[in-house]
Amino acid sequence: MFKKTLFQLHWLFGISAGLVLAVMGVTGALYSFEGEILRLLNSGHGQLATAEAPRLELGELVARLESSSGERVVDLRIDDRHAGPATAYLAPPPGERRGARILFDPANGQVLGTPRGQEFFQVVLQLHRWLAMGETGKQITAASTLMLVFLCLSGLYLRWPRQAGHWRAWLSLDWRKTGRGFHWDLHAVAGTWVLPLYLCASLTGLYWSYDWYRAGLTALLADPPPAVQARQPAIDAPATPDYAALWQGIQQAAGPQLIAWNLRLPAAAGQPATVFYILRDAAHVRAFNLLQLDPRSGAIVRHERYADKTFTARLLTSVYALHSGEYFGLPGKVLMLLASALMPLFLVTGWLLYLDRRRKRRAVRAARSTPNAAPGDGWLIGYASQSGFAEQLAWQSASQLQAAGLAVRVEPLARLDAASLLRHPRALFVLSTFGDGEAPDNARGFERRLLGATLPLDRLAYAVLALGDRHYAQFCAFARRVDAWLERQGGRRLFESVEVDDQDSSALRHWQHQLSELTGTPVPAWHDHRWTGWTLQRRQLLNPGSQGGPVFRLTLTLNGPSDWRAGDILEIRPRHAQARVVAWLQRHGGDADEPVELDGQPVRLAEALSTRQLPETFAHRVGLHGQALVDSLLPLASREYSIASIPADGVLELFVRQVRHAGDDLGLCSGWLTAHLAEGEQLLGRIRRNSAFHLPADDRPLILIGNGTGLSALRALLRARILVGQRRNWLLFGERQRTHDFHCASELQAALECGDLQCLDLAFSRDQPDKFYVQDLLRRQQDRLRDWLAEGAALYVCGSLDGMAAGVDATLHELLGAEAVRALVEAGRYRRDVY
């Protein structure tokens, strides 16, 4: 809770003070080299005497300046570290803090005129300190400076890694990222680079912002006054100084190492003359010594040497040098300049991240605002979904009913009970079957509670859309069990169940048609994500030398906006390799270059056939021309891959294992993606929401379990958690050999070292004589497993169904008991994305 509150305050203060801090940063950067810039601009502004020319006495020098300007000189600054003009300030007009500034030749007192650029830097200084708004602006800049201190400290806390000594976690910027991920890196990593400089600038800047801060800093850092104050000589009453005596007193106090000095003459009788002077061997360019003298006799009234002060008192004396970076010499000054100039970067990246966050929240609110309330006589649509496809179809069915003016309530089966079924007279059920005849995870509770019960459902009229895969012997078995139970309870079928094999489009159109018959409205075109072109930007082999099939990391980009959530799926339209299509045509006497149409676009026959199922038997198609042949062949079924990245990364990544069948033939889609599709070419894909594998709404601990390419979805979940600062993450991952199959090793080790991943347990089955799997890790870490689950942790499992997922499920039942596992499933704390 504390971290979340701190995060919200960080955003609030950053957005509130960002523009002011950006102005202060840019103006501070400009003002930091004011002296050097002015000297450069005025290098030819009047002719200086030669260095060998004798200098005027102090009194004669002041007299010439006052004679030339017609005003009294109150401040004289001569710096022999620079070969250029000296500076004098004249008495200010009534009500002003500072008078006119003039340049002069320190050798002969010749006034060189108003410095070029002086007015510009006066405006810059006013913007930097007060936003050119007087006292009101001063209060705004002061408050913004306080906020900068908070932003620095809160930002440091929010990204503090567990292994604080791991420098990559602090300073490594990934230039390959784009979009939100790159903006986040710029904001967080670049912010870490400049954080010490911003803290130094803000903590010293407050010295001029608040009297209470200056008094507190003085009390904390200043040297205590001497126990016995020496009696100071009285100051003669006349205000007119004796410049010869003054200069003699300065030289005697400073000695031959005097290199630069600033003489401030008394404004009234009885006040001392003040001199700030620097010696050649000074610690830094602003290591001033303070000297106060009687303006008539030159007698020393007060003398504070920088070298005699304690370290804390020297820091207090050097507040301006610390603020500008000069305390650390020219490198410090340059670094402070760069850091100040970078301040607008954090304004821009902060706003981009904030707007992106708001956009996603609006999208979530919009998605949740879909009408879902129905009175007692409305329609109920219940769905059971493992991968998200049944949920998608349930909402599309709801949209079709709502378009006809019907009230609809859509719920997962996990939320339905006997009262829900009794209350609604009409219902649709969109039901997936998981594996070989099982209920999806989130429907097991429904099956256990209701399918063995007896309910008076004679008022219920219902229909079932069953989703399955005929490769399994128990095709659509769960949906059939629900259908049979509803019939036994007296329910009346609105029409016969529609069974869909692997997203068969003709079966789905039949379902739409049946709904249209019920509502009396035309069959609508269901809203669906259209297929879009994704460019293969990069393909990287992750496991060279592995005993298993090659695993490739595919990086895809889309020219246009696209969004998904961790846990979602990319559905891909596969293609045959062109060599296979050409060989098939040659075998059956076809012309690869014959022009045909595919989806309304003119293409070659070979290209069109690359998207179609190519049967081994061709006899009944002999004599068909190219277009008829294309139209007679079924399209290739789409393939699904868990997404391994998050939108903030700026790219979509997949982990694909290359499948090789008997006869050394590559798998259709995996072979095309990993061997035949060239970098820079496009594939057709679309995002499919998989809400059953989305992250919990809260920041509860997360246990991620997977093997092989199942790491893909787990990686996306982990990256999404890290992005929002949720660090209670535990990953258990299994593969064959650590040396070859530890996918994303450096990334996961870095997350572990910086604390974003609190636990990482690995099982490499071929690295020891006795094979060791992920489920064995669970047994080894059963105490930690129970502790995390007691804290409310959620379990996410991704990988192979028959091997790892089944083994993990059996181990959980062994360690926790069937009732505890059932409770986890029904609470949404045990989720699986398996294949």
UniProtKB/TrEMBL annotation:
Keyword Transport attributed: yes
InterPro entries: FAD-bd_FR_type (IPR017927), Flavdoxin-like (IPR001094), Flavodoxin/NO_synth (IPR008254), Flavoprot_Pyr_Nucl_cyt_Rdtase (IPR001709), Flavoprotein-like_sf (IPR029039), FNR_nucleotide-bd (IPR039261), OxRdtase_FAD/NAD-bd (IPR001433), PepSY-ass_TM (IPR005625)
Species lineage: Bacteria, Pseudomonadati, Pseudomonadota, Gammaproteobacteria, Pseudomonadales
Occurrences of domain Flavodoxin-like (ranges): 379-516
Domain FAD-binding FR-type, chain residue ranges per copy: 529-696
Regions crossing the membrane: 12-33, 140-158, 186-210, 334-355
Pfam family, one: Flavodoxin_1
Protein name (database record): Flavodoxin
Sorted UniProt keywords: Electron transport, Flavoprotein, FMN, Membrane, Transmembrane, Transmembrane helix, Transport
GO molecular function: FMN binding; oxidoreductase activity, acting on NAD(P)H, quinone or similar compound as acceptor
